[in-house]
Design brief:
- This protein has 338 residues and is an alpha/beta fold.
- β1 and β2 form a beta hairpin.
- It is globular, with a radius of gyration of 20 Å.
- The chain has 10 helices and 18 strands.
- The longest helix is centred in the middle third of the chain and has 21 residues, at 136-156.
- Strands 3, 4, 5, 9, 10, 17 and 18 form a 7-stranded mixed β-sheet that branches. The chain has a 6-stranded parallel β-sheet with strand order 13-12-11-14-15-16, sandwiched between helices. A 3-stranded mixed β-sheet has the order 6-7-8, with no helix packed on it.
Length: 338
């Protein structure tokens, strides 16, 4: 079996690995598509090689089941939930295995073999059926970036009554723009790159704001009659964008941080307390929300395929990461033919 490893220094390589076999309660998934994520770039840029197969956005078909495995049958198209906890604590039982109360949860693609390969072995409970109308590439997008955006919008309780400002139009932010518009919200997309703003407009943003040309807080307020947005979402992890997301929310508004890493400096009284603001953190999703996201996309006929702008065979993973790191707009996926 071939799998992609990060060599450090912006280099990747394909290596041969033993074909996985399922143990008790496990399933082997034949991977058909795997997405690239901003969180992969730390490994891509790193100084040392990572000995495990990268990738945490896998989608494919169940190829084999181990003893006692329950869930999707062999041949079923599935999205892979990329965390594994103990499986029995209250958070794992609710589908939030990254919050495992016993600690030490595993993340596929980070210390564990991931999905940038021809096959992957995971607990069978990690598999979510991929609805028939969706492609494997769309399933790979849902497996992290799009699913993460959906869960954040659910936390924000976004609806058609809202103006939603989305800071950052990378894959997660673009997904939030697309899904927020499908939920009926008026979306204001904020970014620094014209190509990303153009794609955000094509995916349903009512307004776009170039953060290099204007103060985003002033722009969002101007577009909302001076009040600010009902809900704001930061998908960047940038200190400046996080503070702007908070400060562009209206009185009694809601703000959410989903972008990982970095810091933020806020003044609690004027930024939060005196504006009665509700501030959320949202960390990816549960298995329940992952399945709900896929169903929402099908039932609302969300054109998720338009988000996917880069498709590369596994053999061209190096070129895919080069273009992705350079800031190319949209979602990039690797594909593995049957």
């Amino acid at each position: 079996m071939r799998g992609m490893v990060f060599l450090g220094g912006r280099r990747v390589a394909l290596r041969d690995f033993p074909a996985p076999t399922p143990g008790p309660g496990e399933a082997v998934v034949a991977i058909r598509a795997a997405g690239l994520c901003g969180s992969d770039l730390g490994l891509y840029r790193g100084e040392r090689a990572a000995p495990w197969i990268g990738g945490h956005e896998p989608c494919g078909e169940v190829a084999a089941l181990g003893p006692g495995a329950t869930g999707p049958e062999v041949g079923t198209r599935v999205i892979v939930y990329h965390y594994a906890g103990c499986g029995v604590c209250r958070y794992c039982r609710a589908g939030w295995e990254q919050l495992c109360a016993r600690g030490g949860h595993r993340v596929y693609g980070f210390g564990e073999h991931g999905g940038n390969a021809e096959a992957l072995v995971v607990p069978a409970r990690a598999l979510v059926p991929l609805p028939a109308p969706l492609s494997f590439e769309e399933g790979a997008a849902i497996a992290c970036g799009t699913g993460t955006a959906y869960a954040a919008l659910v936390r924000l309780d976004v609806s058609g009554r809202d103006t939603l400002a989305v800071y950052g139009q990378g894959p997660v932010g673009l997904s939030a723009t697309l899904l927020g518009a499908a939920m009926g919200a008026r979306v204001i997309a904020v970014d620094r790159l014209p190509a990303r703003l153009a794609l955000a407009r094509a995916l349903g943003a009512a307004e776009v704001v170039d953060a290099t040309a204007t103060d985003p807080v002033a722009a969002v307020r101007a577009l909302t009659g001076g009040a600010g947005a009902d809900a704001t979402l930061d998908c960047t992890g940038s200190a400046a964008a996080r503070a702007q997301a908070v400060r562009s929310a209206r009185v009694f508004g809601r703000a959410c941080f989903v972008g990982e890493g970095g810091t933020v400096t806020l003044d609690p009284s004027p930024d939060l307390i005196h504006r009665q603001l509700t501030l959320y953190g949202s960390w990816t999703f549960s298995t329940v929300l992952l399945e709900e996201c896929a169903r929402f996309i099908v039932e609302r006929r969300v054109p998720l395929g338009r988000l996917i702008t880069g498709r590369f065979p596994l053999e061209q993973a190096g070129e895919a990461f080069r273009q992705f790191e350079a800031g190319a707009p949209g979602k990039f996926v690797l594909f593995m033919p049957a």
